[in-house]
Amino acid sequence: MNNVNEIIKGPILTEKSYQLMSASVYSFKVSPKTNRSETKKAVEYIFNVKVDKVNIFTVPKKEKKLGKSKGFTTKYKKALVKLKPGYTINLFDEESPQVDNFNQNSENNNETMAKIEQKKAELDVKNQEIAQKLAKKHEKASENLTTEKIEKTAENQDKGDAN
């Protein structure tokens, strides 16, 4: 594996992994093609720590039932990484980048909502203009029909009088 980001997929956060963190043992989901030495180098590079020991094992797929249907969870490779004394990995920053992204997204959402409202207002104006034009056309058409009916009835009356 060439890319360090492809080796470590992400941390595994369970009750057991939280207990192991107090003993400087961290659990990660890793690529199925990786080995101990690659995992050790990747953790040292990404988190800037010294690794004491790495245990890797494959977690088998498990059968899960949802109603009558059966399915399986995907199997994956798990690495338990023990750090040398004095080193820790801070998986939980005080300022979470997700919160910052959420705030940026909310600002972007406000901008997009404003644009949407502006577009709605423009469409409402256009719809009103179209409705007015249609009303004028309808009035003209009804006037033309009434004048044509009057002319036809007048012609029919003239024909009836002539007979």
Automatic annotation (TrEMBL):
<dbReference type="InterPro" id="IPR013025">
    <property type="entry name" value="Ribosomal_uL23-like"/>
</dbReference>
<dbReference type="GO" id="GO:1990904">
    <property type="term" value="C:ribonucleoprotein complex"/>
</dbReference>
<feature type="compositionally biased region" description="Low complexity">
    <location>
        <begin position="101"/>
        <end position="110"/>
    </location>
</feature>
<comment type="subunit">
    <text>Part of the 50S ribosomal subunit. Contacts protein L29, and trigger factor when it is bound to the ribosome.</text>
</comment>
<comment type="function">
    <text>One of the early assembly proteins it binds 23S rRNA. One of the proteins that surrounds the polypeptide exit tunnel on the outside of the ribosome. Forms the main docking site for trigger factor binding to the ribosome.</text>
</comment>
<dbReference type="GO" id="GO:0003735">
    <property type="term" value="F:structural constituent of ribosome"/>
</dbReference>
<dbReference type="Pfam" id="PF00276">
    <property type="entry name" value="Ribosomal_L23"/>
</dbReference>
<keyword id="KW-0687">Ribonucleoprotein</keyword>
<feature type="region of interest" description="Disordered">
    <location>
        <begin position="133"/>
        <end position="163"/>
    </location>
</feature>
<keyword id="KW-0689">Ribosomal protein</keyword>
<dbReference type="GO" id="GO:0005840">
    <property type="term" value="C:ribosome"/>
</dbReference>
<dbReference type="GO" id="GO:0006412">
    <property type="term" value="P:translation"/>
</dbReference>
<feature type="compositionally biased region" description="Basic and acidic residues">
    <location>
        <begin position="140"/>
        <end position="163"/>
    </location>
</feature>
<dbReference type="InterPro" id="IPR012677">
    <property type="entry name" value="Nucleotide-bd_a/b_plait_sf"/>
</dbReference>
<keyword id="KW-0694">RNA-binding</keyword>
<dbReference type="InterPro" id="IPR012678">
    <property type="entry name" value="Ribosomal_uL23/eL15/eS24_sf"/>
</dbReference>
<protein>
    <recommendedName>
        <fullName>Large ribosomal subunit protein uL23</fullName>
    </recommendedName>
</protein>
<feature type="region of interest" description="Disordered">
    <location>
        <begin position="98"/>
        <end position="120"/>
    </location>
</feature>
<dbReference type="GO" id="GO:0019843">
    <property type="term" value="F:rRNA binding"/>
</dbReference>
<keyword id="KW-0699">rRNA-binding</keyword>
<comment type="similarity">
    <text>Belongs to the universal ribosomal protein uL23 family.</text>
</comment>
